[in-house]
Amino acid sequence: MNALHLSVAEFRSLAARMTDLSADLLAGLDGARAFPEVSGARTARAFAAPLPEEGLGAAALDALGEVLALSRAPTPRFYGYVLGSGEPVAAL
Q1: What does pLDDT average to in each consecutive run of 10 residues of the chain (92 residues)?
Q2: In the prediction, which pLDDT does 19 show?
Q3: For the chain, what are the domain ranges?
Q4: What pLDDT is stored for residue 64 in this prediction?
Q5: Are 21 and 61 in contact (CB under 8 A)?
Q6: What's the CA gap between 6 and 9, in Å, rounded?
């Protein structure tokens, strides 16, 4: 069997997990911080593990919650990359 092949049942199961993760993320956006409360050391630990030699399959979704916790929330409350105008009128 092709390693990339999913049965209909496997696809339904993975799609349901992704739907739940996505819905949970959307449900928490209003209360989420504009940027994660995470240190450089914690970020470094998240990337310290060696990469797997083989694909993780469905287990890849197990770590998605932590990835989302370490990521900036996709909200309009984050202005970290909005640059002000150099024009004096921008000060008004």
Answers
A1: 80 93 89 84 89 87 85 77 68 63
A2: 94
A3: 8-91
A4: 87
A5: yes
A6: 8
Separation between Cα atoms, residue 30 and residue 69, nearest integer Å: 15
Residue type, 54: E
pLDDT at position 1: 52
Under DSSP, the state recorded for 52 is P
User: Where does residue 25 rank: exposed (0-12), middle (13-18), buried (19+ CB within 10 A)?
Assistant: middle
d(CA 2, CA 53): 18
Other beta carbons within 10 Å of 36: 15
Name the pTM for this structure: 0.68
In angstroms, what CA-CA distances link 49 with 38, 46, 69, 77? 18, 7, 18, 32
User: Cα separation of 90 and 47, whole Å?
Assistant: 40
